[in-house]
Amino acid sequence: MYLDGALSNEEERNLLFEIKKSPELLEKYKMEKSFREFLRSKVNRRSVSPTLIKSIKDKIRIAPN
Amino acid sequence: MPQIDALYNFAYHLTYNEADADDLVQDTYMKAYRFIEKYDIGTNAKAWLFKILKNAFINQYRKKSKQPTKVDYEEIVSYHDEEDTNYSSYLDLREEIFQGMMGDEVTNAINMLPMDFRTVILLCDIEGFTYEEISKIIDIPLGTVRSRLYRARNLLKEKLKDYAKSMGYEDKRGS
Fold it and tell me: Which chain A residues have a beta carbon less than 8 Å from that of B126?
């Protein structure tokens, strides 16, 4: 939840305090952080074709208000 | 056009098909234009567009999709019940084999997840939405977002680990 930004400030402080005290917890935190960064960096991202963008703009232009 | 790349990628992960993803994105922008007065100024426009897209997908594609539309929770729950309750998949992604993974392997692993698990992974881990935003986009309670993410991430780690094993990487967990 910390990596998802779902903790309150106080909860974050408490968690970081616990992580600093525990090498095992620190290791788990690092692996989970690594996993999230891995997903974000590796997943294929496709680019939208200019044709699609033009098609949408053309349809909006002629759509009734 | 705002957020079109992110929307397109989400649409593609839902439909597995460029033509269908194109149609879905086009439909989304047309609906957003038509119902623009329903957008609350100051709220997250990206989340609003994603919600439109998700609803459009549900309306158009679940009817014709042969894939299961719901997570088979009994299967997933029994899968987890077999494991240690404190278990979280050991997957050291600092290992070279994972860094060498191409985007296709990771994308394929995500696409192999059941629909509901795939959706939360895409919305949270790829697009960076908060739990509250995800809850509104796919219309499920906050607690369900958290539990679904937990299960989805564990399942994804298992799929990636299986792939790594097939490539000759050894499981480092102690016996």
Answer: 39-40, 43
pTM comes to: 0.76
CATH of domain B4-61: 1.10.1740.10
A39 CB within 8 Å of a chain B CB: yes
Of A26-30, A58-62, B73-77, the one with minimum mean pLDDT is B73-77
Continuous segment of H or E residues that includes residue B47: helix B45-61
Q: Is A31–B22 a contact, with Cβ atoms under 8 angstroms apart? A: no
Overall domain count for chain A: 1
The pLDDT tens digits for B78-129 are 344 333 333 444 555 555 556 666 667 788 888 889 989 999 999 999 999 9
Cβ B134 vs Cβ B124: under 8 Å:
yes
Phi, psi dihedrals of residue B35, rounded to the nearest 5°:
-110, 30
In the CATH scheme, what is the code of domain B73-166?
Answer: 1.10.10.10
CB B60 within 8 A of CB B20: no
Q: Which residues of A touch B25 (CB under 8 A)?
A: 48, 52, 56
Residues in chain B with CB shorter than 8 Å from the CB of A43 are 103, 106-107, 110, 126
